[in-house]
Amino acid sequence: MISAMLFAGGSGTRMGASADVPKQFLEIEGKSIIIRTMEHFENHPLVDKIVVACKADWIDELKKQIKHFGITKVEDIVPGGANGFESIHNGVVRVAEYSKDDDIILICDGVRPMLSEELIDNCIKYTKKYETAVPVTPSIDSLLYSEDGDTCNKSYKRSSMYITQAPQGYTMKKILWAHEEAEKRGILNPVSSSELMIELGESVHLYQGERNNIKVTTPEDMHTLRSYFYYERYRTFAKEVMKYGF
């Protein structure tokens, strides 16, 4: 059993999104970002079920959109938590209710609408082999470390730095252990599941991510996303023009 667990419980403060519309519900070319993200798992032949941790007062809206766009793999929608980790936890617990230890969970933010089938393929493949699979891209920028944001006396070797992406894959046994340990040790808000694993002393297996697999976080990301889908629509139109000769 392979399940995708999407977490979309936030409101998008870094996006500067309207207080009335969380960023995952902003529309691109007639579809919300969360639906576009979900469709990649809906259409993937190896993904069996989808569980979504959603901002509680938007669950009814998400249900309407799932029905409207014909998403059939959604097993359940659970309320999100006070932060990203709590939302992930709620989703993981729900997936665990119908999963076995060696089943796979693909944990993904609900704001990655440019996922590829190959990326999901690789996540599944490496999770089966290593129990963990985290997509990364090499850092193309130099990195400096600062405690106060004003001064710096430490830098990092760029060739050793990587940017994490999603989906991140785990066996259910592995991720449930991590969440149980987090509770025991008082780890309340790790940035991601991979960082939780590392904080617990575990290693995670890295695989090659994709630079266009953007997480929609800032207004600049929205501009990039809109440009991409506008280009795709224009390219489709141009193909039709060439096909019919008008």
TrEMBL record:
GO cellular component: cytosol
Keywords on record: Nucleotidyltransferase, Transferase
Coiled coil region boundaries: none
Keyword Nucleotidyltransferase part of the UniProt annotation: yes
MF annotations from Gene Ontology: cytidylyltransferase activity
Pfam families: IspD
Superkingdom, taxonomy of origin: Bacteria
Protein name as it appears in the record: 2-C-methyl-D-erythritol 4-phosphate cytidylyltransferase
